[in-house]
Design goal:
Nucleotidyltransferase, domain 5; 42% helix
């Protein structure tokens, strides 16, 4: 018998959001881990707000919503709120009842400074790391490190000459909202030019033959057992930033430190290798023999673990690939290195959540 195509909705519904989400849905274990991480950050959340006044949107809900934004490749917070308005799965994950109104997207803008000052992204990554360590998924002995370019939210046209040192005004740009500019034949570098919209971004290129772009450098420290990221940071794009960030992340690691560190040929400098050995870390760095002598000698390369670290180190590219495709970190949505670093760290934590879920499902 054919059913009627009527559009009269029922007045009341007695089915909860919990029953709407299948028990085998892949978001369920992620929601459980996120709730456990946010519970561990409860004291930090309490310090973010005053004890009196009108209650605000719970910061736990804001963080869960941002986790969904990264998981589902949502480009903006306004689109995220639009999804939360009618998507029952999103409402269940964030903790918004089906009859509760959705807050305005500007709530993220007003609370971003609170989340930045309290270092909530770093706290979430630390809580996720603690869960992985409790499940024996992390090796504290063998690590890898690498960096990647993060394009800044700025165009090449914004890269204008800095004001002269004598105090005179710089040359005025061509009139118009989007003027046509020709950079051919001009010598432009970070010493003489600066972006007017993203002053902290630097003109940088990864290697010969590649275009120079306004960008930052994102760095990840990965453990070698299951390819989980244990630390992340964002720095200015300079030739020494990768090595300096690697040492800073290693120094932040609690004692005892790792035994080996895998890295590509960009880290093959005598200064960096000496710093690793001074910390008691064996440098499993790829030899760079392009026109110079490598700082890694045969005593290191002949060890079986050196070749193993070189193969496992490639897993860190999987982290960067996920961040740039799924989490949409290839082109930044926020301005300023501080905001970029916050979102980058949270995205790394979300990657670890997905990785832990897959590892637990496989075992």
């Amino acid at each position: 018998m054919r059913g009627d195509d009527h559009h009269q909705t029922t007045m009341f519904s007695y089915i909860s959001l919990e029953t709407r989400v299948p028990a085998t849905h892949p978001l369920r274990p992620i929601r459980q881990m996120v709730d456990e991480a946010l519970q561990g950050l409860g004291p930090r959340f309490a310090e973010m707000y005053a004890r009196t006044g009108r209650p605000s949107i719970a910061p736990e809900k804001l963080v869960r919503a941002l986790v969904l934004q990264l998981l589902y490749s949502i480009r903006s917070e306004r689109q995220l709120m639009e999804q939360l308005e009618y998507n029952l799965l999103f409402r269940w994950f964030v903790g918004v009842a089906i009859d509760d109104p959705v807050w305005d997207a500007t709530v993220f803008t007003k609370n971003r400074r609170r989340l930045l000052d309290a270092e909530i992204a770093q706290g979430v990554l630390g809580q996720v790391f603690a869960q992985a360590y409790a499940r024996a998924l992390i090796s504290p002995d063998h690590f890898s490190v690498d960096g990647t370019l993060l394009k800044a939210w700025a165009s090449q046209k914004s890269f204008q000459p800095k004001p002269p040192a004598d105090g005179t005004a710089p040359p005025a740009p061509p009139p118009g909202r989007n003027p046509t500019l020709d950079f051919r034949g001009q010598a432009r570098c970070n010493d003489t030019h600066q972006s007017t919209t993203e002053p902290e971004a630097r003109l940088y290129r990864k290697g010969p033959g590649q275009p120079a772009e306004l960008c930052y450098l994102g760095h990840v420290l990965m453990e070698n057992r299951n390819g989980l990221a244990v630390d992340a940071t964002v720095t200015e794009a300079t030739g020494r930033a990768e090595r300096e960030a690697a040492l800073a992340m290693l120094d932040a690691w609690p004692a005892p430190g790792p035994q080996t560190l895998g890295a590509d040929r960009a880290y093959d400098t005598r200064e960096f290798v000496t710093e690793l050995r001074a910390r008691g870390i064996t440098p499993h760095v790829t030899q760079n023999t392009r026109g110079r002598r490598s700082a890694i000698d045969g005593r290191t390369t002949q060890h079986p673990g050196y070749a193993l670290s070189g193969r496992i180190r490639a897993r860190i590219e999987e982290i960067f690939g996920w961040l740039k495709t799924v989490a949409l970190m290839r082109k930044q949505r926020h301005g300023g290195r501080e905001r970029v670093a916050w979102v980058f760290t949270l995205a790394v934590a979300v990657y670890d959540l997905v990785r832990i879920r897959n590892l637990m499902a496989a075992t």
